[in-house]
Amino acid sequence: MDATTEQRSDHDLMLAVRAGELDALGELFERHHGPLFGYLVKLTGHRASAEDITQTVFQRMLKYRHTYRDDGSFTAWMYHLARRCAADAFRKGNSAPRSTDPTDLHDFADEAPHAAVHAVNRDDHALLHLALQQLHRDDREVLLLSRFQELSFAEISGILECSVGAAKVRAHRALHELRQVYFRLQKKPIA
Fold it and tell me: Which domain holds residue 140?
């Protein structure tokens, strides 16, 4: 691959894909499949589902490349597609799969920094993931986008199709609920 391809922004690469330069999608895949997969593992709680949905996202990027706009953020557009693909997968399966072992998430986590990195020990880390899995899917999703994927609230509002203020409120409420679930789990006696 030449140096000019490596220096192109995600936006420029997607514009090239939209214009028919389909090889540029390979570069986007290399840059984003890891974090996207990590997001989907956390969202679905199931590695196999996350793999399938990740592939579907990139297939839809190719299929719907003409819908990518010059004024948008590639990352927000990608997560918007991922959200739709995950919703389709959930509808087909009638419910979102849930991980029974919260430590599975640690093995497949993306490399984006998040609060769990600062956990004092592995038990706290596993407890945090268990609490995250117990949240309603919508709450888990807004936390994953804001805290784990570090998207701006402007990007999140586009993905969730709501106002920036509503996205902030949803994230605040979800974080509050996560804290409550976490502390409730922390108080339970270990079996």
Answer: 3-187
